[in-house]
Write a structure and sequence with these properties.
Layout lengths: L2 E6 L7 H16 L3 E6 L5 H12 L5 H25 L4 E4 L6 E3 L8 E4 L2 H8 L3 E5 L2 E3 L5 E3 L5 H11 L4 E6 L20 E3 H9 L7 H9 L4 E5 L7 E4 L11 E5 L3 E9 L4 H11 L7 E3 L6 E8 L4 H15 L3 E5 L2 E7 L9 H11 L6 E5 L2 E7 L3 H11 L3
Parallel strand pairs: 1-2, 1-9, 2-6, 3-6, 9-11, 10-12
Antiparallel strand pairs: 4-5, 7-8, 11-12, 13-18, 14-16, 14-17, 15-16, 18-20, 19-20
This protein binds aspartic acid (ASP) and magnesium ion.
């Protein structure tokens, strides 16, 4: 008997009709003789709506109470799904994150899973129940409710799959799988049959938006068989695994991320220890820095630029303003009208000319590159936001994806 974990995102359970559709998928899987654990997200825009409701009352609610509120979304959808499965005549049991044994750290709003106590899950599966677990939630060691960060239900599902050594973890969403680019932005984008964990991790982190990046990290670490597929079309999806045969395929996909702000501190002294000072101050306030660029010194001065996520923009600028005075820098500039456009592919490790091909595609469209960063399997450039869609398409075409 196989154990299959099936996760359904918010759009897959958005209304009664969709809930029925999901119940159909789950019970079909169960009827084939599999053990099934289902993980659900909150319906449709419920999480956003709950956040809006909170801010109507208090613009600055405590993270603890915010988590109490947000965990309600997933509880609603799991109960509704269970009711439909009951109606179809199958044995089903819902479990909240804490009932399912999710123990997390105490970072409200972005908690990390420490471990899962499988006892209850095992017990319910032993009774041949279909088990539905509320995604995105857990409990810390003080018995307080926590949530795993936006999109965290993917991570709940992979964590259960890892912990129970499931045979397969299916992530159902409203697209057929992982595309070479966002099909809403790039007309020629197409679905990939398979992608490696590393490539998927880069794509998820770079804004592809299909999977929570921590879920991919965990799938890689515990070698979870992962499939991304649509709950609406029931076509085969994209398999995420360790090794994928690279058939001349230099790059796997293109992604763009608008959630970036570029901050520059102009005219800092060109002396040792300056970069250390700047980035240790940011680290002390837990500001994550992405791309970093330092200009060549001139007249004993230099400029340092870096990017951060938008939610850290204000804080990062404030930290730089403070430092500007102590360092005697000229000024601090911030630009958030930018996008990060990236290409990802394990094939680029062994193939020269990938970067030049990307830059050529941008040059032909007359798109200016503001910053560049690379890793073994990705290249990212910063461009003006209004040019990002054009950039995405140009690169996608250039690599013949
Ligand atoms: N409902 C949560 C969110 O919207 C978690 C999830 O959907 O994965 O972020
Ligand atoms: Mg999601």
């Amino acid at each position: 008997m196989n154990l299959i974990v099936q996760k359904f995102g918010g759009s897959s359970v958005a209304n009664a009709e969709r809930v029925r559709n999901v119940a159909g998928i789950v019970t079909e899987t169960y009827k084939k003789g599999n053990n099934v654990v289902v993980v659900v997200s909150a319906q449709g825009d419920t999480t956003d709506d709950l956040i809006a409701k909170a801010h109507e009352i208090n613009p600055n609610p405590s993270p603890r109470e915010m988590d109490v509120l947000l965990t309600a979304g997933e509880q609603m959808s799991m109960a509704l799904l269970a009711m439909e499965i009951e109606r179809l005549g199958f044995p089903v049991k819902t479990l909240t994150g804490w009932q399912a044994g999710f123990l997390t750290d105490s970072t409200h709003g972005n908690a990390r899973i420490r471990r899962i106590n499988n006892e209850r899950l095992d017990n319910e599966l032993g009774k041949h129940n279909i088990v539905i677990v509320a995604g995105f939630q857990g409990m810390n060691r003080y018995d307080d409710l926590t949530t795993l960060g936006r999109g965290g239900s993917d991570t709940s599902a992979v964590a259960i799959a890892a912990s129970l050594h499931a045979d397969l973890c299916q992530i159902y969403t409203d697209v057929d799988g992982v595309y070479t680019a966002d099909p809403r932005l790039v007309k020629n984008a197409h679905k990939m049959d398979a992608i490696t964990y590393d490539e998927m991790l880069e794509l998820a982190t770079l804004g592809a938006g299909v999977l929570h990046n921590r879920s991919v990290e965990m799938a890689k670490k515990y070698n979870v068989n992962l499939e991304v597929l649509s709950s609406l079309t029931r076509n085969p999806g994209t398999i995420v695994k360790e090794v994928v045969r690279v058939e001349k395929m230099l790059i796997r996909g293109v992604a763009k991320d608008n959630n970036v702000a570029r901050i520059s501190i102009i005219g800092v002294p060109d002396t040792p220890g300056i970069a250390f000072k700047i980035f240790s101050h940011l680290a002390a306030k837990k500001v994550n820095v992405d791309i970093i660029l330092q200009s060549i010194g001139r007249e004993n001065k230099k400029d340092i630029s870096f990017t951060v996520a938008r939610e850290n923009q204000e804080l990062a600028v404030a930290i730089m303003e403070d430092l500007r005075q102590t360092l005697g820098a000229q000024k601090v500039i911030c630009d958030d009208n930018i996008s990060k456009v990236s290409i990802v592919g394990a094939g680029m490790q062994s193939n020269p000319g990938v970067a030049s091909k990307m830059f050529e595609a941008l040059a032909e469209e007359n798109i200016n590159i503001q910053m560049i960063s690379t890793s073994e399997i990705k290249i990212s450039v910063l461009v003006a936001q209004e040019e990002s869609e054009k950039a995405l398409n140009a690169i996608h075409d250039a690599f013949d994806l």
